[in-house]
Structure formats: structure tokens, C-alpha cells
Write a sequence for this structure.
């Protein structure tokens, strides 16, 4: 099978892990910078060019799309979808997960429990809004952001007002979200592949930090999810239209709450923490689905 991994950096752990797993199973694998691709639309013959070469020989693609190039990445995926090339991530799902508000709305619509969240309107009493979320401290999030960037904790009205006004001055909209104190700076990352949790870890924030992201110095240990946690992780991935997803879950007094669903979850943290070959699970999923689709494409 001919597979392309779309990644801006072939040296990244996730890219290399996927490349090794695919090569070990006998596939031809290319790592391609998606920003170097050209999309060609003519009549009913969509084409993608890379270095002057048609990529119409590909059987499947694995998009590894960073948040800063979401629109370009989604356009590329959509082009391959029009070419009937199997993608491990759909364009619509990628766009949905990169919008925090729409993601939470979709999860809520599908019955997935999420933290109490509010998109504040103009000229509303901030203290009343925060009180309705459970009071201080309160989490303030940019609508877009990854690795904990743009996520702040306000302990009083003065802090909250200052943070929100700063974001508003640079044209950024924010979400207010309840702070789950009982989580104690920890969350769960469940890695879902085609409706199954293949690996899970508990991430713990470093002292003095409430964000548990490994990019911010958090630590991780393997964990076995409860039946309820695993069910919610799978349900969240399904709600977002994702076959491959990193689902972040907070433990609360109300039960597990889905904080975020990642359409391009990193492999380094989960594979190192759990010693599970997640990349091979992704390639196995890809193989089974391309085998189904290929007779249709011939």
C-alpha cells in the first residue's frame, strides 16, 4: 500500500513512529510537507501535486496537521477525499475539533458530559457570569489553541477582567469554564482508534501549574480507564466524527467530563508512558479500511 504522512517535520516523534510502523508492515511510506502541495481542480479530475509529481497513486493518507495551518490542512484532506483516497482524519472533523466552542456544542448535542462553559456576550456582568459557573477560580480559554496555550486561571474578578480585556484588545474571543478543583491538576488522555481505547494515561501538572499538558512540564503514567471513562472517550470520538482521537477527560464529582478532543494527537507521550505501540494500531485500522475501499476505487 502507498501511504503519505502529511507532516511539516519528518523528524517529529509521531511522524517517525507512524513511518516505522507502516514500513514494518511492508508499506511504501512518504513524509510530505502539506504546505508544499498544490491542489488542482478541473472538471471532475481533482489532483494533488507535490514537487511536480501527481499524488494520484496514493492509497491512503495520514494527516498530521498543526493548529496554525488548519485551513490549509483541511483543504488538502478534502481534495484527497474528492479523489477517493482514504484519510485517517476527515476534513470536516479536523475543522470542528479546532473550534473549542463548536466542539463542546457538538459533544453536548451528542450527550457527552462536558464542564460548564460559557461564551460571554458584550455588556454582561462578568461577576454574575462567573458566579453561575461556580465562582472563582475560573478557567479562561481562547477559542483556538493547543498544548495549553491561551488557557489561564483567574482567581478573582480583577484578574478575570484584566485577562479578558487583554484578549479582546487583540481581537480574540474567549470561553469561561468552571474550574474542576477535585481533579487536582490531573486529567486522563484516552487514545481512541476506530471505536476502541487502545491506550490511556493519567497526566499530572507540575507543582504550581493547573494545566497537565506534557508540553508544559506535566508528567504521565499509564492507567486503565473505568468502564464509564472508556465509554465516554469512545462516544466523544464518535460525536466529533473521528476514527483517531485523543480524548482529554477530567474526573469530577459529577463523573468524567470531556474537556477536549484532539484530531491530531501526539504519539510520543502516550507511547512512552504506556509502552503501547499506538502507531501500529493506526496502521492496522488504515489497512482494514483501505482493503474495503480499494475494490470500489478500481
Amino acid at each position: 500500500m502507498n501511504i503519505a504522512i502529511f507532516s511539516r517535520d519528518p523528524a517529529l516523534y509521531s511522524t517517525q513512529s507512524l513511518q516505522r510502523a507502516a514500513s514494518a508492515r511492508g508499506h511504501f511510506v512518504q513524509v510530505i510537507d502539506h504546505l508544499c502541495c498544490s491542489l488542482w481542480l478541473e472538471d471532475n479530475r481533482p489532483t494533488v501535486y507535490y514537487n511536480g509529481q501527481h499524488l494520484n497513486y496514493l492509497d491512503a493518507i495520514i494527516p498530521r496537521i498543526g493548529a496554525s495551518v488548519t485551513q490549509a490542512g483541511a483543504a488538502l484532506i478534502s481534495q484527497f477525499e474528492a479523489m477517493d483516497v482514504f484519510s485517517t482524519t476527515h476534513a470536516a472533523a479536523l475543522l470542528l475539533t479546532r473550534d473549542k466552542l463548536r466542539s463542546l456544542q457538538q459533544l453536548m448535542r451528542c450527550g457527552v458530559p462536558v464542564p460548564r462553559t460559557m461564551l460571554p456576550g458584550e455588556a454582561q456582568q462578568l461577576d454574575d457570569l462567573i458566579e453561575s459557573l461556580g465562582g472563582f477560580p475560573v478557567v479562561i480559554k481562547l477559542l483556538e489553541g493547543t498544548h495549553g496555550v491561551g488557557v489561564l486561571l483567574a482567581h478573582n474578578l480583577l484578574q478575570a477582567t484584566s485577562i479578558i480585556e487583554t484578549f479582546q484588545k487583540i481581537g480574540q474571543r474567549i470561553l469561561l469554564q468552571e474550574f474542576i478543583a477535585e481533579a487536582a491538576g490531573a486529567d486522563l488522555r484516552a487514545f481512541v482508534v476506530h471505536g476502541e481505547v487502545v491506550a490511556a494515561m493519567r497526566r499530572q501538572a507540575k507543582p504550581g501549574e493547573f494545566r497537565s499538558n506534557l508540553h508544559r512540564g506535566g508528567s504521565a503514567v499509564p492507567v486503565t480507564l473505568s468502564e464509564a471513562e472508556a465509554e465516554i472517550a469512545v462516544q466523544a470520538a464518535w460525536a466529533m466524527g473521528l476514527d483517531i482521537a485523543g480524548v482529554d477527560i477530567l474526573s469530577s464529582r459529577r463523573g468524567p467530563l470531556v474537556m477536549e478532543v484532539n484530531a491530531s494527537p501526539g504519539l510520543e507521550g502516550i507511547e512512552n508512558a504506556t509502552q503501547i505501540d499506538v502507531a501500529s494500531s493506526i496502521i492496522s485500522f488504515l489497512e482494514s479500511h483501505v482493503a474495503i475501499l480499494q475494490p470500489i476505487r478500481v
In short: The chain has nine helices and 16 strands. The chain has a mean pLDDT of 91.
